[in-house]
Amino acid sequence: MPELPEVETVRRGLAPYLEQRIIKRVILRRPDLRFPFPDGLAGRIEGKQVQRIERRGKYLVFQIQDGSMLLNSLGMSGRWTLSGPDIAFTPGTFAHGASIGTGDGPHDHLVMEFEGGIRATYTDARRFGYVHLIEPGCMDDDPFLRVLGPDPLDSMFDAKVLADSLRGRKTPMKSALLNQSIVAGLGNIYVSEILHRAGVSPRRTAMTLVRKDGSPTARLERIVSETRVVLKQAIEAGGSTLQDFRGVSGDSEVGWFPVNFRVYGREGELCKSEQCSDTIRRIVQSNRSTFFCPSCQR
Fold first, then answer.
1. Mean pLDDT of 79-104
2. Is residue 3 annotated as part of the catalytic site, yes or no?
3. Residue 288 falls in the annotated catalytic set
4. Given 21, 203, 282, 288, which residue is catalytic?
5. CATH 3.40.50.360, applies to 159-292
6. CATH no., domain 4-141
């Protein structure tokens, strides 16, 4: 499932082409994805300008001219593809040869045509993604956004903020970091990598990383520091989605961060930490695989 770096990679691909452009036409090829499309979506946004494209945690947010916001979750397999003038578009194909990302593929469910001939196509084979329209002035009350914790790349996010959220929590640290109300945007891949680099066991109880006075321990400081490092490196590499993640122009020259994996997917292999001869283990936490080094992570 796309995590923060993958969504940020998509945002950076869309923004230069779609920001400040008027939506000329919206085509819905089915009534729903994970949830039904918003009632009257086409009529609500056609003729209006996309002012900015932002990211909130794992969500893409299209800021519309009238103050409304189009929120998109990519789910498991969602992707955006751009086509039109000055875009080198290489359509992908399914096993049976049908094109995807052209706007006419069997899983191309939403198409937005912009001024200047630009076309943005949302493709979602598994349909776990969704599109949601937030009315002007209603962002703070939106059920999807109001539950999100701080973004780990926000300048306001630091170890003290994280300590405030973890104080008194008896949940394992891995589970705490996956909680989107504590930190927005982190997922299974990056949490495993962050905890290894910080030297913290995924099974360690979250509250033990907070001192009695509420201040963060040195280990919690390392987690915050490594979170920024890992996420920034992953964004530079275009993310880590392991299946068919592609850029918005259809190319596959993204998603190269897996070459930097130290633990994720490396069960039974030697730990990459210097002076460590132990092997990477895998356990299951909350029905998800966790990869870690029992010697390096305490």
1. 67
2. yes
3. yes
4. 288
5. no
6. 3.20.190.10
